[in-house]
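Morning, I've got a small favour to ask if you have a moment. You're getting the sequence in one-letter code plus the fold written as tokens. Thanks so much in advance, here it is:

===
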Amino acid sequence: MSQNVHADGFAEPSRGAPAATVIIAADSDRDDFARRLNLVLSWPDAERLQMLVVYLAPDREAVEAGLRGRFLTAPPVSLALEESTDHLARVLSHVRAERVAFLPAGSVFSRPQWGELPAGAHALMVCVSEVSLPTLEWREHTQYATGWLTSTALLRAIRDFGAFPNWKPLALAAAARRCGLSLKWLSPRATTETNEPSTDAGSPAIGKNSTVLALVPHYRCEEWLGECLESLVTQSHPLTAIAVIDDASAEPPVKIVERFPQVTLLTAAENVGAYRLCQQVVDETAYDAYLLHDADDWSACDRLEIQLGVAEKTGAEFLCTQELRAISREGEFLPVNYPLDVNRAQAENPGGYCHINGSSLVSGNLLRRLGGFATGIRLAADMELLTRASHAARVLNIPRYCYYRRDRAASITSAPETGYGSPLRDGITRLLNERARSNATLALKGEPPDLSPCAVAGPVRLTHVLGPALKPA
């Protein structure tokens, strides 16, 4: 690797625009900084990258001592503490590429997926560390994902990003919203493993020509519903229809849904829970597939395109994805992984938690064959459906982070009365696991498992409030 070197030991940038700029945040932790710098230098395209080290002035001595004699493609940038409002502009004045990756102190990551970010796009991808996915049940990463990849055009369009180095992904998204910019979230790969289950799909149940209705049950999620719907109406493969189903709120989210003319708002006559709401819409409509989505979460812009492509390739009728959990209080993401082959996971560990419901795409035919959700229970009916589906269809988790889940105290999975570890949820889970094990035993014996819903409630009266009419059954 040849380069000219300044008297201070830093290399001059090569001629021509670099493929991308990597901003490496440095502080007084030399070991962590050396780890990240060495990782970047080991990438096969390192010679084509602009490596820009940025640090705060008080850390100058420690950082430059750690840099002495190391290869860089731009001199390091020192930022003054008292000039925090100018930090982004100062850094951008040194950026020479159309794509930018930010690698903060303490971050764990793999080589950014440069080619998946269109040049100039107002898009954001979280930088994650590629891992081996679990085989039987979900698994959280031990460290947050704090790095990101975006376009220089987006960074130049935003203001008020805040002080370096607290440039977290959610902070970048918030800064874009304050500037009135529509931001698309991209889906990073979870792994480079090539053992994704595949099959000769023959005539797949769902594919790129399928009609798909997104189901968004809503109750007290007004703060986040707009972001949820924005992520659905901007899918790279458009949804056929989107339905928000309000669970008898005192005031349905009319004003929010009105911002999205293509979205239908339905309201329930009584509060019955998300599963009964979704099942009622499935019963009353005729779509090839249904995309499930929680009202307080959001999806990657390429989620549906990826799921339909995999369904067409593999013949799967139930497809979920990996999860990036937004830790609201820290503004960071926790990667959560699920097994690729859900049929195998359920066969070997019946009832095991191996999917995130909001990331589900399910064929309408499969829902009809199974009798749909167990509408007689308000908790864990998504897992109950999946355990039955694993005996009747191909079920996969796609190895990409297509679903962004918001971690918040008042959600149904975290509230003291209904959350994980609560007596109510634990009791339901025990009953469902017993049934899952019983069905697995029957399947091993070659006998038909019981694939009917474990509990069924009556229909729910829904009222169409606004938006397009849905395709009737």
Observations:
- Confidence is low (pLDDT under 50) at residues 1-14.
